[in-house]
Give the backbone structure.
Amino acid sequence: MTLNSIRKKVIKTAYTQKSGHIASSFSILEILYVLYNDILGDNDLFVLSKGHAALGFYAVLNELGKISNDELASFTSYDSNLGGHPDRNKVKDAFASAGSLGHGLPISVGVALSRKIQDQAGKIYCLVGDGECNEGSIWESSLLASHLNLDNLVCIVDNNRSQTRAVETKNIEEKFSSFGWETIVVDGHNTELLKSAFKNIKNLRPICIIANTVKGYGIESIQNDAFSWHHRSPSDKEFENMMSELK
């Protein structure tokens, strides 16, 4: 599995299907790459709460052989299993359906608590966006997770600065810390630093890994105009240039 091969799958699918959140997908690819290559064990669960980055998630699953090429190519087509947001009834590896933001972390809190009660092994990894942190459900569930000492819960914040378009929640690290979480800040595009952050979790309380990322990371033209790329597909010329850039 290589990051550029995954990026090419995202670009090609978005281009042919005229759909998908490329910039949001690209900001989480290193996180997904490390989780699926180095971290997730048989007893662990992953929850994609920022579901609009589904195309990046599907591309990783395709690279792992969990989704076929034909299925990936059907993205958002009528009757496709792969919608613009994951549906747990159609995608085996989607533990929770996504759509409206703010639901993945509460679901993860419930699963983490259930496992604690039943003395079951494994961690719950939940990936949220920084814009999603505007949702009250994120902070309600964060407070509950701390109160219940859910040391089997890891929240990863894709801090790609999406909030700058609206109401910015500044100092996300301080806010999670004030809710009683252990917090780690890391370069979300450095796979070695991400791997180290995940592997050095001490299991003392809920963990929040704030991954500082860039929307559209990996394609210069998207990075430089990330918000206009929030949800659109490349033109013919843009597609050619992007695929060349990813050689």
